[in-house]
Amino acid sequence: MNIIQRLLFLCLFGALLTITAAAAHAQATDDYRLVVTPEALTLEIDDRVQLSGHIEDRDGAVVRDSVLFYSYNRESVSVSSNGLVKALKPGTFQLRAVAAAPNEERLSVTIPVEVTRPPITDITFTDTPGHLYEGTRNAIDLVVTDAKGFRRDPSEVTFVSSDSSIASMDDWGRLYALKAGTVRLTARAGEAAASWEVEVRPNPTAMLELTHHANDARTGDVIRFIARPRKASGDIVQDIPIDFSFTAHPGNEPAEGARAQIAEDGRFVANKAGLYTVVARAGNVAAEQTIRVDARNIQKDLRIAGHGLVNEVHTSDLWVWEGIDGRDYAVTGTWGGNGEAYFWDVTNPSRMTIIDTVTVDARTVNDVKISDDGRIGVITREGASDRKNGIVILDVRDPHNVEVITEYTDGLTGGVHNAFIYEDHVFAVNNGRRYDIIDISNPRQPETVGRFELDTPGHAIHDVWVENGIAYSSNWDDGVVAVDVGSTPAADSPEHHDIGAGSFSNPVKLGSYAYPNGWNHAAFPFKSRSTGDFYVVAGDEAFPNGLYVKDKPTVPAGWIHFIKFEGGWDNPREVARYQVPEAGTHNFWVKGDKLYVAYYNAGLRVVDISGELMGNLYEQGREIARFLPTHHNGRIPNAPMSWGPQPHKEHIFVSDWNSGIWALEIQD
């Protein structure tokens, strides 16, 4: 399930959450069928078309015309809830129509959309070298643009060499320099064409040095191989491309997967222990080094220190803090219930118990946050009976007797899904579209002082986290967006490059990073304790099989992305991932060099994120521990659905959608 499903279904049409994956393609039941006109669309960019739909009975009579439309790819083809479609980008996409039949059965129809590609009008060679060396393979960069100004894939271009004995291109745009001489390369697509003339020189490389510093290497460690091509005189050849490859020397493990990977710049990481031979080539000159990589061997056990069962409703998020009396407390929200937030004394997790309950007018208290000083709490509301929703500000100085200070709904009536407290301000995710910045320095008289909203087609937002005056919001298809809300420049911090202009009342966008699946649900910025590198962890959320299917366990999808903003906010790069097969992520936390992930149906995962990160951390033996929170008396029995983790002092707390709150300890 993508963001449009979540926003429309969860916030506005909660009853429709019972649609299953099997029903996604069902157009009819025995008594009714959903009819959409037209059934398929072929459009050009900027075309607009109106869809219509209705429910017919078995005799063909129209019995209901209330149909909801939404898009799987709203940045490419948008659709309003009443069916007005606009083509934005070329490609093949899907729209969905959903409706409730008179017997309350849910019907859905998929509408395929083909947006045709405009003709390519411009081809430009970029970053072309002044010369090439014979025997080398070279990546050629092109900028290909069509009549609507969209960047196109260079694979749509064909290449012709004026002399293929000197240089030729393969089908993937790689240029092979074969012998000395001058050659003209022409790129063509339709009527567009561009040419580049280049000289191929003899390869001056006489020897190639290959070095590394892989002492006591373990799986998951990033090893940097450095290749230095030298002339016969000993001088380094500065401008010759180096190709890296490796050979694995497997042991006796049968049918194993990928053992390692190596990047174009010589960074190598092994997933499996064993011997590896890394080869570097500069044309026809090569060098190799063999290294040994040992298993990481960091696995530990998690012991249950305590459990607070909640099974009458689903449990949402949690927050754990040290109270002003020195004791430890937690607050958990509830999902699809009666608007309750539970307060717990967790000083002794083996005896954790509910000490107070705050009930507000809501169906869901999705998010719960406590201020750094342990005095103010904020809970979010969705599904209020008066539709005002908003946030509720609490006095939590005495968690045994929590008091409601005020309800704040100004401009927040669409529902607040998530919130964050930072320096006496609440960042409230408003109606899934933006976040409002609310001054609560006087909690009895809160005031909205700023807002931030994207201007992209069909934009949406799920969460926000603020660190060092920068708000990192999670915006589904638009990815992670960094916004200056009052940062202070610091020369030694890469995340503080090009900042200092924003404030609470004047949020200033710094940069963003979006990835193809469009599932960006949460983000957490951190600086590696072991390397000093700055990362933003971005987490997915998706429900391809349905979210809440008649009290059956849910099977989500998605993983964790590690993003670096190197050299400024306009240069993001995804460098690593943590992906558990056949499971999906929810919320997470970073403390020290450990990542704590509530991995929904895969439970709590604790991951070693020390050192440089590259590749899939799950395959590298970086998982320290795991725990599946199941309970036979859970809201859905024996079905783990971990929602939110938080390390606190010597314990790890995690809320579970079906079984409440757990406290765990890592055992050596």
From TrEMBL:
The keyword Signal applies. Transmembrane segments: none annotated. Residues 1-26 form the signal peptide. Gene3D superfamilies: 2.60.40.1080. It holds the Pfam family Big_2. SUPFAM superfamilies: Invasin/intimin cell-adhesion fragments, Putative isomerase YbhE. The keyword tRNA-binding does not apply. This is Uncharacterized conserved protein. Keywords: Signal. Residues 36-99 form the BIG2 domain.
